[in-house]
Design a protein that fits this description.
- It is built from seven helices and no strands.
- It has 303 residues and is mainly alpha-helical.
- Helix 5 runs antiparallel to helix 6, helix 5 runs parallel beside helix 7 and helix 6 packs antiparallel against helix 7.
- The radius of gyration is 32 Å and the shape is rod-shaped.
- The relative contact order is 0.08.
- The N terminus and C terminus are likely disordered.
Length: 303
């Protein structure tokens, strides 16, 4: 078995072991692993100079999406803990029905609040997935460029060989001088032919970069808009929900009323319905344009 195959097999075994060890340990462990991967990408001698910066970028984007996933998981745990905390009975030496009756509005509204927290965590998780999807688009740049690396390496090798021969200073008119001149002419011809053959691929590389960066950030901005607007929807319904639990002295606030349970149930239903019905087409935030006057630059005194 060749050395490369052995190395590849050993690397595969290590990746498999890593997956088994980190499985189920949450995004925190995965984030540590991503930090190690960033360092590995930066210092790996096998990493091509052409794709090094992109490899680091992709690893950092992975860390970014993982941080949102971690926040989403923390939000779900907080939702559960808040619900358990809010539903405990009144703590008193003389527990009676009155004390617990005065907590009915509190318990009901806190139940809905835990739903709001859980729903916001779900939105965070969805946003993390869309960030990861936009990262996948950028990976297509790397895939395209990796196909160009052998061509670039071949041209680079020819350039080094030409520079090496040009450094020789044989006696003019000697057989060595003629031999070097023939080699230089041949190598320069090969290099020119490669440059001409590879030019369309290099031009395509520039187009691919533009297209993929455009598509990736368009996905990110669309995800940002959806996430932000849905959070805004929840915040408004959340404040409406809290109106039934204004702090008043003397127990249950009268604003909760006899129909308080129906009211909080309605609010939950409305917010869920509006979140599920949200689309970019019915967004309340309109697309921005520069208008006829164009972008006005703010003049700043830099003296």
């Amino acid at each position: 078995m060749s050395k490369d195959k052995e190395s590849g097999r050993f690397g595969g075994l290590l990746h498999g072991l890593r997956d088994k060890v980190t499985q189920g340990l949450g995004p925190g462990v995965e984030a540590v692993h991503q930090s190690l991967r960033q360092s590995y990408a930066a210092y790996n001698p096998a990493q091509s100079q052409y794709t090094l910066k992109l490899a680091v970028l992709l690893s950092q984007m992975r860390s970014l999406s993982l941080s949102h996933t971690s926040t989403a998981d923390a939000g779900k745990k907080f939702s559960k803990s808040f619900f358990i905390f809010s539903q405990q009975p009144a703590l008193s030496n003389n527990l009676d029905n009155l004390a617990n009756d005065n907590l009915q509005d509190y318990k009901d509204i806190c139940d809905r609040l835990s739903f709001f927290v859980f729903q916001s965590a779900m939105l965070e998780g969805e946003y993390a997935k869309k960030l990861e999807s936009s990262r996948t688009v950028l990976k297509e740049i790397r895939n395209f460029e990796e196909n160009l690396i052998p061509r670039r390496d071949k041209r680079e090798a020819l350039k080094k060989e030409i520079t090496k021969i040009e450094g020789y200073k044989p006696e003019s008119g000697s057989s060595s001088a003629k031999r070097y001149a023939q080699q230089l002419a041949q190598l320069r011809g090969e290099l020119q032919a490669l440059n001409e053959a590879d030019a369309p691929y290099e031009d395509s590389m520039a187009s691919v970069k533009r297209q993929k960066v455009h598509d990736s950030f368009l996905q990110q901005f669309e995800a940002m808009k959806e996430y932000g607007e849905k959070l805004a929807i929840m915040s408004e319904y959340g404040k409406l929900l809290l109106q039934g639990m204004d702090v008043k002295e003397g127990g249950r606030d009268k604003s909760y009323g006899e129909d308080g349970l129906d009211r909080t149930k309605l609010i939950r239903g409305l917010v869920q319905e509006e979140l599920e019905g949200w689309t970019a087409a019915n967004s309340e935030i309109q697309s921005r344009t520069l208008g006829a006057k164009g972008l006005r630059r703010r003049e700043t005194d830099t003296r």
